[in-house]
User: Fold this.
Amino acid sequence: MDAAAIYKSANWKYEDYKKLAIESKDDIQSIRAEIYNEVSSDANLSALNSPSRVSIWQLLLDLVAFILWINQAQWELYKLELEQLAANAIPHTALWYANKAKEFQLGDLLSANNGVVAYPVINLNNRIIKQASVREAGGKLFIKVAKEVAGNLQPLTTAELSSFRGYMNNISDAGVQLEFITANADLLKLQVDIYYDAINSNISSQVYAAINAYLQGLPFDGVFRKIGLMDSLQAVAGVRDVKIAVCEATIAYTSTPQYVPIDVFYDTVAGYLRIDPAFPLSGSVNFIPYV
Assistant:
C-alpha cells in the first residue's frame, strides 16, 4: 500500500478505510500480535480473557493496531520527505551546483525573496541545460554544461553562456570561484577489423549502430573505456572477433587535431564524445568474413 495515500484520509469514507485495512492486514496483524502478547502477560489485565474475536477487548486490539499502523506509516513517509528536502537543500556540494545549473532559464530574471535568489516563475520551456557536471579542483568549481538540439548535445552559444554565467554567479555562495566549460564534442578516430559470419548481410549497419550507441550512452562528463567499446561490438549478432588497431581521441578542432592514443580509457574534456567526421566509420571499419 502506498503510504502517501494515507494523507488523503480526510476525504475518505468507510469503504476506503476498509480497503486500506485489508491491503495492510499483514502489517496490522503483526502489531496486533505484539499488543496481544503484552496484554496476556500482564497480570493486572487477566480479566481480559475472552477468546471471542468480537469481544470488546479484542475489537479494541484491532482498532488500536490499525491506528498505530497508520501513525507509523505517516511518520515513515514524513521522514522520507525530510531526507529528500535536506538532500536538495544542502549547499556547498557539487551536486547542488549541478542541479542548479539545470534550473537555468534563458531570458528570465531572478528575484530575491527572504535571502533566497530564484526564478519567481518556473518556465520549463526556457531551461536549456540538458547535461551538467561539477568538479572541484584547485579551490575552484568547474561547471561543465551542454544543451540538446535535435537529440544531440551541443555547446552553449556565447550569449547563452554569458547569461548562464550571470545566473550561476548570482545563486552561488559567497567566495566560491566558478569556472565554466561548454564545448563541442571530443572526437574519436578508430581503425577496427570486424571478423564476422558471412551469413549476416546487415553486419555493417549493426556495427556502426553499436559504436554510436556506446558513445551516446556514456554518462555526461564520463569516461570512454576501450573495453566497453569492445564489449559492445562483440555483442552484435554475427561478430566473431574484433581487433581495434587504432583508438585515438582529440578535443574539438578547426584545423589541427590533437589526437592522443587511448590504451585503456579517455576522460572527455567537453563531457561527450562523437566519431570524428573526418574519419567516418564507413572508412574506418574493415569487415572480414570469418572462415
Observations:
- The mean pLDDT is 87.
- The longest helix spans residues 56-89.
